[in-house]
Amino acid sequence: MSAKLEKLSQNLRTVLGERIGKLELHLGQLILDVAAADYLAVAKTLRDHPDLRFEQVMDLCGVDYGSYGEVGSTLKEHSDTPRFAAVSQLLSITHNWRVRLRVFAPDDNFPVVDTVTEIWNSADWFEREAFDLFGIMFSGHHDLRRILTDYGFVGHPFRKDFPISGYVEMRYDPEQKRVIYQPVSIAPREITPRIIREDNYGGAGRG
Questions:
Q1: Please, which residues have CB within 8 angstroms of residue 123's CB and are 6 or more apart in sequence?
Q2: Calpha distance 8→6 (Å, rounded)
Q3: In terms of DSSP H, where are the helices of 39-197?
Q4: Which residues of 64-95 are buried (b: 16+ CB within 10 A; e: fewer)?
Q5: What is the value of pTM for the model shown?
Q6: CB atoms < 10 A from the CB of 180, how many?
Q7: Residues linked to residue 99 through DSSP beta bridges, in sequence order
Q8: What's the distance, CA 68 to chain centroid?
Q9: What is the pLDDT of residue 63?
Q10: Are 105 and 92 in contact (CB under 8 A)?
Q11: Per-residue pLDDT tens for 106-155?
Q12: Is the model's pLDDT at 82 over the cut of 80?
């Protein structure tokens, strides 16, 4: 760990104390896990405390850890870990350092965490995207609407249990003179690519 990351790690532990759920170094970046109940307070402290001063959220995304443990990652060590998380990439211009802030939604069936738009207003559309694609609700968000899919879309496309073909399709109906929704008309099928090679492909006779 570099001297800068060591200093940041020490500052985080000193300032946040018991509100740190987990703090680890992964791929050269510190990952800070906090409980959903502490998320908003920790976010404000990360922005305002002079020893941290994370003025900007550069990105915020949803993550579905539904089958993450199957690939042997150390980030999900136990099967009882909540499924959905909101992950923010924070930047301190003052100190020129970064941290990844992660909060898990306690309820897998209805994932909810607080919005941080009152702390970093640039999180607005990022949270809308996480809601749209993963179904994560952000409590207190002033305008939590879909942002990439249609407003009448059913489901959340980036969930690992979402079917590849979706649930419904839309088309323009010339008789009703409007766009309508209907069940998907394409039958599910597995497409296996065919490999066709010329005779004696790679043989000695080629030149």
A1: 57, 60, 88, 115, 116, 117
A2: 5
A3: 39-48, 123-134
A4: bbeebeeeeeebbeeeeeebbbbbbbbbbeeb
A5: 0.78
A6: 13
A7: 90
A8: 13
A9: 96
A10: no
A11: 999 999 999 999 999 999 999 999 999 999 999 999 999 999 988 778 88
A12: yes
DSSP label at 186? S
Mean pLDDT over residues 15-34, rounded? 95
Strand order in the sheet with 56-64: 22-26, 29-34, 97-104, 84-92, 56-64
Residue 185 main-chain phi, psi, to 5 deg: -95, -10
Say if residue 73's pLDDT is above 70. no
User: Is residue 71 pLDDT above 50, yes or no?
Assistant: no
Q: Which domains does the chain have, with CATH numbers?
A: 3-147 (3.30.460.80)
Tell me the one-letter amino acid at 201.
Answer: Y
Question: One-letter amino acid identity for 199?
Answer: D
Residue reference for tokens 């002033």: 142
Give the integer Cα–Cα distance in Å for 130 and 138.
9
Q: Residue 101's beta-bridge partner residues?
A: 32, 88
Is residue 75 over pLDDT 60?
no
**CB within 8 A of 149, min separation 6: which ones?**
132, 133, 157
